[in-house]
Automatic annotation (TrEMBL):
Glycosyl hydrolase family 95 catalytic domain: residues covered: 324-634
Chain segments annotated as coiled-coil in the UniProt record: none
Superkingdom of the organism of origin: Bacteria
UniProt name for this protein: Glycosyl hydrolase family 95 catalytic domain-containing protein
PANTHER family noted in UniProt: ALPHA-L-FUCOSIDASE 2 (PTHR31084:SF0)
Species for this entry: Actinoallomurus vinaceus
Amino acid sequence: MVKMKEHGNRPIRRLLAVLALVAGVLDLAVIVPALASPTDAAFDGSTGALSVDYASYLSKHDLVYNRPNTNPAYGLTVGNGRTGAMVWNQNGLTMQVSGADLSEQSAYAAGLVNLYSTPGMDTGYSTYQQRLSLYDGTLTTTYDSDRTVTVMGSPNSEVMGIHVDDHRTNVSSVALDLSLWDPSTVTNVGDVPNLDTWKTYSTFADSNGVGISRGQADPNNFGSTLAATVEGASYTSQVVNGSKVRLTITPSSSYTVWFTAASRRGAANHDSVAQARSQLAGVKSTGYATTLNNYRNWWHDFWQRSFVQYSGLSGDADYLENVYYLATYMIASGGYGDYPFHFINGVYRSTGDQTKWSYGYWYWNQRDVYNSFLASNHADLLSTFNRLYSRNQGALKSYTNTRYGVDGLWVPETMGWDGNARGTINSDYTKDILSTGTEAAYNMYLQYRYTNDANYLRNTAYPFMRDVVKFYAAKLSRDGSGKYTMASSNSHETYWDVPGAITDLAAVKSLFPVTIQASQTLGLDADLRTQWQNILDNLAPYPTDGSAYLPHTPPIAQTRNDENVASEVIWPYNTTGIGAPDYQTAVNTWNRRPFPYDNVWANDAIQAARLGLGDQAYNGMRTMLQKYQNYPNGLTANTNGVFEYLGVHLSVVNESLLQSYNDKIRVFPAVPSDSSFAGKFTLLAKNGFLVSSEREAGEVKYVGLKSLYGNAATMVNPWGTQQVRVRRVSDNAIITTSSSGEVTFPTSANTVYVLERTAKPLSAYSSTRLTGTANQGAKSLSGTASTLGLSAGNAVISLRAHANNQYVTAENAGASALIANRTAIGPWETFDEIDLGGGAIALRAHANNQYVTADNAGASPLIANRTAIGTWETFDLVHNGDGSVSLRAHANNQYVTAENAGASALIANRTAIGPWEEFDLLQD
């Protein structure tokens, strides 16, 4: 929200900076909500999943730029699972390249790649489109019909490629530069032991290609080599200077530049130069065509593991669905490294080596990035996160004994790549947080429950769980009533050194039962099990004020951060939710949370979904995007984090469509109440059930279930107490019939079942296949500044008036000089109207102590007596009756008018909805 503008200390109108245009202006895409089709169903009984044409369906969510983007912050993101490139148009095609394993906590990127030609690739054309194809994982830039540049990769490797088809006959030169930044700008944000090695560069240039290395003397064996070669054209190599190398490529109609961000840690003998050479030689030998085919197949297989449709509500839900798929791609395209996709650094940035918070993996932030991927059937992604903690179990256990004198496992909230706690114990915010280990252990347990990997449980998850439980057992003490509690700890970062932190009580309530269960399953630690059960049976209740939970035993301590700590019992601790005995208390806690949506990592909407609050979950996603999705590539300008809100978005959608955290399968537990909403999904439930269902026009059609491991299933009846039956698809045998609120039935591995109403079985629906139409333009989320993609035309500014909770829009097609650096300087705070003379008015926006201006050249006549009557107090938008709209300013009891002659889309219902209350400025 921008601040109320003042002229002469008189408030005029609240102007909100928002980024959107009505459909039909230039080439903005129309987001058309899916039409409800209550007579058909897309379930494929042979596969146990929805029938989806993934290629066409995902194409409607492609990110499209219809004009060249020169702003690095807007760069589109393309990656192969381990290496990522953020791409923009600057002297040809420029990208910053990085990988999760190149430096401690991904602090330092590999460098810049710049491909350019004479004449420029981006000159002398009439049509342009840059498309991030989610289904294929490629970024393709097309200039007219004679130039196409495709960025792709070798799947799940460190090698990426730029394939060029250029059929122009006048190309005289082509070059590729690899470069780095000024060494003097490198700071120790990565908690590195030797900063000098990150300021030191070495290069090579020979007949095999070029390369530039950094961090080669890092004692932790991090470091990287950015290297490149060419397939399909001859080239020469040279070192331009100490931090730049160049390939000069003989112009050709078709060639591929291969580049890699080779890490020392993943290289034999930690030799990233040799690793880079080997990787480039290998991919060049395989060839572009085969590598591209393998790459596409890798992404195709990735997408076909699950499916989500979340659509309707005049297209706004479709926008949320688009963000779901874009966020999934963004995280997966860099999330398969040996180390996690860092919540700030990831593999995508355009900021050189300027970053922050890189000296650790904050569990609070990292969980947002990764925790959705079990439901979307990508346990291998979550395992990357889990491995960070399981591989460091020995170091963590040793440090726990040193710090606490306990034979157990304490996990620092801010943990370095090797398990070090420097970022935690040196901060009052985090040094006394005890509950992080519980979250890490529980996520390992969930990995087992979703994958049925008994070896993982025995060898990895349970030993970690046991040691965390042992730590808690040693640290808990009895209070005056004889109940176990934590005498003093941080209730996360917000309340320091307080008694009875709710996070510690939730840690015990969530982890102790499953650890006891696992010990029984494995036949281990029977003696410890008795002690753990005693603690669980005598645990202090959550602190409350009588109707809602409190973050710790009162009186409530000073607030140090803006976390909604008491709501943590809902998610991620999973101790309450729909149908729980304390459900109303949990709802009250959520409703009274002190900091709603107060940061980029806010998980309020996930908790709303867990409580079955569908409208709140939907509006929560909108709120998070409105506040934090500032750039048309889906990213944020927020400096407190980068990727967390995207991960939160994934979890909200999944939890709105399917819940199974309490071993009960519940479909559509938290969807919007709007009858236009259409939801369809194939997602993975706990205990290994691939669940599919469809809901349209307010009706759930069926629930399909493919049992992967043969466990018993419990489903909540989505039709209340209507009679349902469970049918085995292979032979149509009826397994059970029930009118209960829950149905439990046995399953066999790799067998498909359907839960259906007896009165309206699945066979009552005609069969269909889900498809889509490729997106061709930019999209916007109504009422927000959030857009995806860039349109092609000139700058357009619209004035949108709001009254009586309705929005209407008049387009100011005459506007020029778009405020191009709006995003760069941050959200607009205030506006000034500037008399330019000659019948023109300018709108000047102020943010971060900078001014930028868009000229309203279409306004006429100028409000000539604006100055004479004093500062404007109020504005009216006036319908002139001839298709034009005027802006009328009132001051000192006088009205003066400037006609917006360029306006279209008459606000016909201005009078009907009453006086204008506020205005939004809309830009493409």
